Amino acid sequence: MAKKPKPGEYPAKLRIKKNDEVEVIAGKDKGKRGRILRVFPKVNKVVVEGLNMMVRHQKAQQTGRTTRSGVQQVQEGGRIQKPAPMYAPKVMLVCQQCHRPTRVGYAYHAGEGKLAMRKYRVCKHPDCGKQVD
Ligand SMILES: [Zn+2]
Questions:
Q1: 47 CA distance to ligand 1 middle (Å)
Q2: pLDDT for the residue numbered 100
Q3: Distance 55 CA to ligand 1 centre (A)
Q4: Is the pTM of this model over 0.85?
Q5: Which domains does the chain have, with CATH numbers?
Q6: Distance CA 95, CA 49 (A)
Q7: Ligand 1 centroid – CA 9 distance (Å)
Q8: Chain-wide mean pLDDT for the chain?
């Protein structure tokens, strides 16, 4: 059985995992698809490859190191683009069988023993219903 969460630690039920393909259903990236790079279950957020891009400006910094010739090393500054975490309910899992965004259902493996304890995710489209992973 699942462990009882400690107070202040109620992870949202994330039905999305790393490397899943998702489609954004709200916000400025609506309709775009990408792959999940990271999930943050505690804050209910996900990072999607190439989406919700954020530009970080980095100043040139002195590293404090000195080369053998006595020149101070400087880390180059510039603009760094990286995807920012977005609110997980804004994305939907894309079914790899029917290639449509879907809600995620769960089913249990048939049979006995260890296998029967394992859940797997299923596509919620009535005409598909296939195992997602
Ligand atoms: Zn499907």
A1: 23
A2: 96
A3: 35
A4: no
A5: 9-94 (2.30.30.30), 96-133 (no CATH)
A6: 17
A7: 33
A8: 85
